[in-house]
Every structure is written in structure tokens, then in C-alpha cells.
Design goal:
Layout (H helix, E strand, L loop, with lengths): L4 E4 L3 H12 L4 E4 L16 E3 L15 H12 L5 H10 L4 H6 L4 E2 L12 E4 L2 H16 L2 E3 L4 E7 L2 E9 L2 E6 L2 E4 L8 H8 L13 E2 L8 H9 L4 E2 L5 E7 L20 E4 L13 H4 L3 H6 L6 E5 L15 E3 L2 H8 L3 H14 E2 L12 E2 L18 E13 L2 E2 L6 E4 L2 E8 L17 H24 L10 H12 L1
Parallel strand pairs: 1-2, 1-10, 2-6, 10-22, 11-19
Antiparallel strand pairs: 3-5, 4-5, 7-8, 8-9, 12-20, 13-19, 14-15, 15-19, 16-19, 17-18, 21-22
Helix pairs in contact: 1-5, 1-12, 2-3, 3-12, 10-11
């Protein structure tokens, strides 16, 4: 028997879609390309959800009203965002947590030093992996059918309407039909060839993408995204070089390093390239609003590498990374250990130190410690790096997810020639570029995935149930759905 709704993907957005579709009375089949042990995509590496709230709410302190949230998003994207869809996400973030709790997600106050986001972000107890596991447990209990190691490589579409998906199960091709479909299969960040094509070759003859590390899953290769864009002419949005790209420890693994590989001391020191020169304002804004630009900044430097330099005054003021930094008793010794040109490095540090105008240092506020007469300036938290021992961290670009995606609207429908599909919807990273043209602010990816996953699931269920002639099942109980879907995919 044909399931009402097919969900392609296995992360937060896909699970939200599957749960909402099932709650709306639809039978649901979810296809996850990864093995069960690696299910959940990038969502397993998340920690929190950015939430609008007009007053204190359980784990959220003070208030974070819609307009402030919107201004934060507007600033980090530089205006490359759809305000209507962005505000939809913002408003949805204010009322989703009770629903999340109903599916087993628990929240906790942020730990000490968690990026100053106690006011803006709700942290998952147990992190993203616990959230993913809770959603899968709830989906199974409700009768959502789940198949692992079932990558979908193409779908059939007729005049903008979804017909069937083609996947591989146990090495065998399989065609699965459904009355409606939700695409939530992620971006293309783990597709090295596509990254290479997008970034091309720079003026130094380098292929920057060759030096990128992938913070998240190895399974987001963008196969369906490319298929929809190239083979079906789906409307696209976003720049293929734009991504949630963070400066991470250069010693991080190629895939799945996650949050612990991030280097969070950038705003408390200086960053130099392999030539020993600074290249951007390290104190431009609070770290949660700027950390996701630094991967791109490092990607533009020679060899796609940078070095975060701090002294002992910074210790204890940032979340410590998983790997210890390179330590030295003097700055020339640190330069030597990092393999940097000592003379240029010392000229850079001496110039910076002399330019510091130290006022009332406060790493929790936009303080008045700044530089004068040096380019680039450091606008906040500028203090001389003069107190040993000194520490250095080599940085590489860490790609979390890409922003090129499918153009959609507030119904989450996939669009073809500016016309919305009647039964094909999209959520999560595959459409995040509608809200994130560039830049990032902590927790907003989960806000987008949750909002659009729920919208896509609801609308897919409505489209599927409206199309049934006669209805596929008269008994829509979880047990009846489960038994029927078992026959459908046996």
C-alpha cells in the first residue's frame, strides 16, 4: 500500500515533518540514507534552538522579542534574507517548545560559558543527539515507518507533482510511490566535487575547497538537491559558496568533528594568516553572531589556514576546545612553534599591542577596549597580548551546511517556474538559503528546520489526505498505519 507521506531525510527537519504529518492523520514512511548509528544528520551535533520570547520562559531569561531577533538576523545576513519567511521562523520559534516536549525533548539552562546565549537560546538536555533519539522514539511509537541505509538518488515528477522516489536498499534499487513528499535531505557540504566546483580556483592557483573540513555528517552529498535543480528545473535560491562555515581546529577530523572542534577564543585575541598578518576585526560583535563568518574568512587566506593567538589573560573566558593549544613562553617562540615567519608575526603583534586603547574590559558586553591607527581595527575586547604563557590554535574552514537550496514560500512547497508544487515540500538545509543568504547566528538553523519541518509535514499530510479516492485507510490509528505501511514497503 502506498504511504500518504514520504519523508526523505533523517534529521531534525525531516523528523518534525514526519511527526506533524502523522499527527495530522497521514501514514508516513521516512527514508534515512545513513545507518541507524549515524542517523540524524547534522542535527546530532546541535545544542540549542534560538527562541523568540517576550518575557522569561522556563530556561530562557529576560526577553528576546521578535524585532530584536529580526535585527540580529538582518545584521548577520547583510540583508540577504526573505523577511516574510524569516519572521515566520522567528514567530514559530516562540511556540514550538511545548510540542517538542510532547515528543520527548527536554531543555536545560546553558552551562557556564555557553556563548552568552542564556537569553536567546534554549539548550537541549543531552544535546542534539538526545533530541534526535527522542524524535525517533516518538515517531516509532506513533507508527511512522523508518528505513535506514536507504539513499534516494532521484524522484519522479510530473508537471510539478511528486510521483515516486527511487532509492537503494541492501544494494537493490526500489521505487516508492507516495501521495505527497517532504524533501529534508540536507545540503551538499560533504560533496567535495561540488564544493570544488562552487569555489573554483583562486588567484594563487589553489583549490580552496580541498582544505575544507566538514563539521557534520558525511552523508549530506546534495544528490537530491542537484537532481531537483539540474534535472527538474526547480527554482533555486542562494549562492553555492555561502555556508555555515566556522573556523575550527585544523587538527579536527574530516567529518563529524561537531561542536567540540570549534575555536571560541578568536574575539579575545588576534588572528593571523600563514604570513603572520591580521586580516579582519576580531572584536566586531559578540561571538555567537560572528563565529560563523570566520570559516569563510580563513578560506580566503593563503593555504586556507589561520592562527588564533591569545595570552594568559584570555584563559577561562571562553569555551575550551577539545585539543590544547600550542603553548610558548614568548611570542617569538610561539611563532616558531606554529611555523610562522617570526619577523612579520612580531611586527604584527607589536603594531597591534601599541594600537590597543584599553578601557573597561568586559567580554560579556560590547566594551570600550579598541584599537586606533591599525588596519584592520579591533573594535571591542582589544587588549595587548603581552602576558605569558602564550597560546596559538591553527584554524581551518569547517563547513556545517551549505545555503544553496530550493526556493520556497510560507507553505514550504517546492516551486517550479515560480509555481508551487501541490504535493512536494521542502524543509531544513535544503531550503535554509531562503532565510540565510549568508552569515549565521547561533541556533537559527534549528529554528528554520523546526519551523519549516512542521509546516511541510502538515501541508504534505493535507495534500495527501485530500487526494485519496477512496481513502487509503479508514482506520488512522497508529497501529493501523503501522500494519498497513509494513505491507506497503515489505
Amino acid at each position: 500500500m502506498t504511504p500518504d507521506v514520504l519523508v526523505i531525510g533523517g534529521g531534525n527537519a525531516a523528523l518534525c515533518a514526519a511527526l506533524m504529518a502523522r499527527e495530522a492523520g497521514a501514514s508516513v514512511l521516512l527514508l534515512e540514507s545513513a545507518p541507524r548509528a549515524w542517523r540524524g544528520g547534522n542535527s546530532g551535533h546541535t545544542r540549542n534552538l534560538r527562541c523568540m520570547h517576550d518575557a522569561p520562559q522556563d530556561v530562557l531569561v529576560e526577553a528576546y522579542p521578535e524585532e530584536e531577533y529580526w535585527q540580529d538576523l538582518l545584521k548577520v545576513t547583510g540583508g540577504l534574507t526573505n523577511e516574510h519567511l524569516a519572521r515566520l521562523v522567528i514567530r514559530a520559534s516562540s511556540n514550538c517548545r511545548d510540542w517538542m516536549r510532547s515528543h520527548g525533548v527536554h531543555f536545560q539552562p546553558p552551562l557556564s560559558g555557553a556563548l552568552h546565549v542564556a537569553r536567546t537560546n534554549a539548550f537541549f538536555m543531552g544535546g542534539g543527539k538526545a533530541l534526535v533519539n527522542a524524535y525517533y522514539r516518538s515517531a516509532e511509537k506513533l507508527g511512522v515507518q523508518i528505513r535506514y541505509e536507504a539513499p534516494v538518488d532521484r524522484i519522479e515528477i510530473d508537471n510539478g507533482r511528486f510521483i515516486a522516489a527511487h532509492c537503494t536498499v541492501n544494494g537493490q534499487p526500489e521505487r516508492i510511490t507516495a501521495r505527497a513528499c517532504v524533501l529534508a535531505a540536507g545540503g551538499f557540504e560533504s560533496n567535495r566535487e561540488w564544493l570544488r566546483e562552487a569555489w573554483g580556483q583562486n588567484e594563487r592557483g589553489e583549490w580552496p575547497a580541498d582544505n575544507f573540513l566538514i563539521r557534520g555528517t558525511a552523508y549530506n552529498r546534495g544528490v537530491l538537491l542537484k537532481h531537483l535543480l539540474d534535472d527538474h528545473g526547480a527554482d533555486r535560491i542562494g549562492d553555492p559558496t555561502q555556508a555555515h562555515m566556522v573556523a575550527i581546529d585544523a587538527r579536527a577530523p574530516l567529518y563529524d568533528g561537531g561542536i567540540c572542534t570549534r575555536i571560541d577564543c578568536v574575539s579575545l585575541g588576534v588572528v593571523v594568516n600563514r604570513e603572520g598578518e591580521r586580516f579582519y576585526d576580531e572584536g566586531e560583535d559578540f561571538w555567537p553572531k560572528r563565529y560563523a563568518i570566520w570559516g569563510r574568512l580563513v578560506a580566503q587566506q593563503p593555504g586556507q589556514i589561520g592562527y588564533s593567538i591569545i595570552d594568559s589573560k584570555a584563559i577561562g573566558r571562553f569555551m575550551p576546545p577539545v585539543f590544547p593549544g600550542v603553548k610558548a613562553d614568548s611570542l617569538p617562540e610561539l611563532a616558531q612553534k606554529l611555523g610562522l615567519p617570526v619577523d612579520t608575526f612580531m611586527r604584527t603583534l607589536d603594531t597591534y599591542n601599541a594600537a590597543c586603547r584599553v578601557g573597561q574590559f568586559d567580554h560579556t558586553a560590547l566594551d570600550d577596549c579598541h584599537t586606533e591607527g591599525v588596519t584592520p581595527a579591533k573594535t571591542h575586547w582589544a587588549r595587548p597580548i603581552d602576558t605569558g604563557p602564550f597560546y596559538g590554535y591553527a584554524l581551518k574552514p569547517g563547513v556545517t551546511f551549505t545555503y544553496l537550496g530550493l526556493h520556497t514560500d510560507d507553505t514550504a512547497a517546492v516551486r517550479f517556474h515560480n509555481q508551487p508544487s501541490s504535493n512536494l515540500f521542502v524543509a531544513g538545509e535544503m531550503m535554509a538559503g531562503n532565510v540565510l543568504g549568508k552569515g549565521y547566528t547561533a541556533g537559527v538553523g534549528m529554528s528554520i528546520g523546526t519551523a519549516f519541518g512542521r509546516i511541510a509535514g502538515t501541508n504534505a499530510a493535507q495534500a495527501a489526505l485530500a487526494s485519496q479516492q477512496p481513502p487509503a485507510l479508514t482506520d488512522k490509528s497508529p497501529e493501523a498505519i503501522k500494519n498497513g505501511a509494513n505491507h506497503a514497503i515489505a
